[in-house]
Amino acid sequence: MATSIQYIDIHKVLKESKSNFLKSLPKFIVALLKIIIKENEINRILSLYADCKGKDFLPKILFELNIKAEIEGLENLPDNGRCFFVANHPFGFVDGLILTNLIAEKYGDFKAIGNDVFMLIPHVRPIIAAVNVFGINPRNYLLELNKIFASDLPITHFPAGSVSRVKKCKIVDSAWQKSFITKAIEYQRNVVPVYFYGRNSRVFYILYLIRKMLGINTNIEMALLSREMFNKMNKSVKVKIGKPISYETFNNSKTHFEWAQVVKHHVYNLGS
Question: What are the pLDDT digits (tens) for 193-214?
Answer without folding.
Answer: 999 999 999 999 999 999 999 9
